[in-house]
Design brief:
This protein has ten helices and nine strands. By secondary structure, it is an alpha/beta fold. The strands form two sheets. A six-stranded parallel β-sheet has the order 1-4-3-2-5-6, sandwiched between helices. The structure holds pantoate (PAF). Pantoate (PAF) binds next to strand 2 and helix 6. Pantoate binds next to strand 2 and helix 6.
C-alpha cells in the first residue's frame, strides 16, 4: 500500500491507474477505522481494480462547539489495518493543502442540508460536500463507497453528484452493528462503559418503531412518541431529533410509506452525539 500525503502525488498515482484502464474505487473516511469502514473497503476491493482510502478529519464539517479536537485519531493503526485489507493507496492530507490560505469555494445542497442533522449542525453538510467534491476531483474515482449509517450524507452526496454532473457512482452499504445492535461509529470510542449501555437506546427505539409498524401503526407522530419514550428512559440520553422522512428527498412524512420511509435519529449520550436509522 502506498501512503501518499500530497495532492500532486496522489493525482499522479490515480492518473497512472486510469491510463492502465483500471476501475478506481474510493472510500473517504475521517479515520479511526472500524468494521463499518472496512465493509466499504472490502466492497471496493471486490468491485474495482484499485482502492484508494482517504483519512482526513475535515475541519470544515465541524461547528465551533463540536468535537473536532476530541475526534479520535490513530493514523498508524488505520494504515496497518488498510494495508492488511489490501488497499492500494492511503491518502492523508494536511489542512493547509486541502484549504490553503484564501480558500473561498463551498458546495451546498440546498434544503436537504438544513433538516435532520443539518438543523442542529448548521454548515456541517456544506463542509462534507465541499471536501467530498474536492476529494472526487483529486482521486477521480469510478465508484465511491459510503455507509448507510450516515443516511442523510448519502442522500445529499447523491444529489450533489447528480446536480453537478460528477462522473462518479455513489454506492451505499448497510450499517454494521455490534452484536447488541449498536451501530458502529468512530465516536463510540468516546463512550464510557455506562454510556455505552445507554447508547443502545438508539437501536432499541428503532426496533420499537419497526415493531409498531409491523403491527399496523403508520402514524409518524405516534411512532416518534414511542421512540422518544424509550430514549427518555435513559438518564444519560438526550435526543436531538427523531424523524420520519422520505428516504429520497428527506421531506417529513406524516404517514409511513412502505419502501420509502427513513426513520432517523440523533441522540446525545453525555457529550457524544450518535446517529442511527432504518429504512422501512
Ligand atoms: O462520513 C465521513 O466520515 C465524512 O463525512 C466524510 C465523507 C469522510 C467527509 O469528511
Amino acid at each position: 500500500m502506498k501512503r501518499i500525503q500530497t495532492i500532486k502525488e496522489v493525482k499522479n498515482e490515480m492518473c497512472r491507474y486510469r491510463s492502465e484502464g483500471q476501475v478506481i474505487g474510493f472510500v473517504p473516511t475521517m479515520g479511526y477505522l472500524h468494521e463499518g469502514h472496512l465493509s466499504l473497503v472490502r466492497e471496493s476491493i471486490k468491485q474495482t481494480d484499485r482502492t484508494a482510502v482517504s483519512v482526513y478529519v475535515n475541519p470544515k464539517q465541524f461547528g465551533p462547539d463540536e468535537d473536532y479536537l476530541q475526534y479520535p485519531r490513530d493514523i498508524d493503526r488505520d494504515a496497518d489495518v488498510l494495508e492488511k485489507e489490501g488497499v492500494d493507496v492511503l491518502f492523508t492530507c494536511q489542512d493547509r493543502e486541502m484549504y490553503p490560505k484564501g480558500y473561498k469555494t463551498y458546495v451546498e445542497v440546498q434544503d436537504y442540508q438544513d433538516v435532520l442533522c443539518g438543523a442542529s449542525r448548521p454548515g456541517h453538510f456544506r463542509g462534507v460536500c465541499t471536501v467530498v467534491l474536492k476529494l472526487f476531483q483529486i482521486i477521480k474515482p469510478d465508484i465511491a463507497f459510503f455507509g448507510q449509517k450516515d443516511a442523510q450524507q448519502a442522500v445529499i452526496l447523491k444529489k450533489m453528484v447528480k446536480d453537478l454532473n460528477a462522473e462518479v457512482k455513489i454506492s451505499v452499504h448497510p450499517i454494521v452493528r455490534e452484536k447488541d445492535g449498536l451501530a458502529l461509529s468512530s465516536r463510540n470510542a468516546l463512550l464510557r462503559p455506562r454510556q455505552r449501555k445507554a447508547a443502545l437506546c438508539l437501536y432499541q427505539s428503532l426496533q420499537i418503531a419497526k415493531q409498531a409498524i409491523l403491527k399496523g401503526q403508520t402514524d409518524s407522530l405516534k411512532i416518534i412518541h414511542l421512540m422518544k419514550e424509550r430514549i427518555n428512559k435513559e438518564k444519560q440520553a438526550q435526543w436531538d431529533y427523531v424523524e420520519i422522512v422520505d428516504k429520497n428527498n428527506l421531506e417529513s412524512l406524516s404517514k409511513v410509506i412502505k419502501g420509502e420511509t427513513l426513520i432517523a435519529l440523533a441522540v446525545y449520550i453525555g457529550q457524544v452525539r450518535l446517529i442511527d436509522n432504518i429504512i422501512i
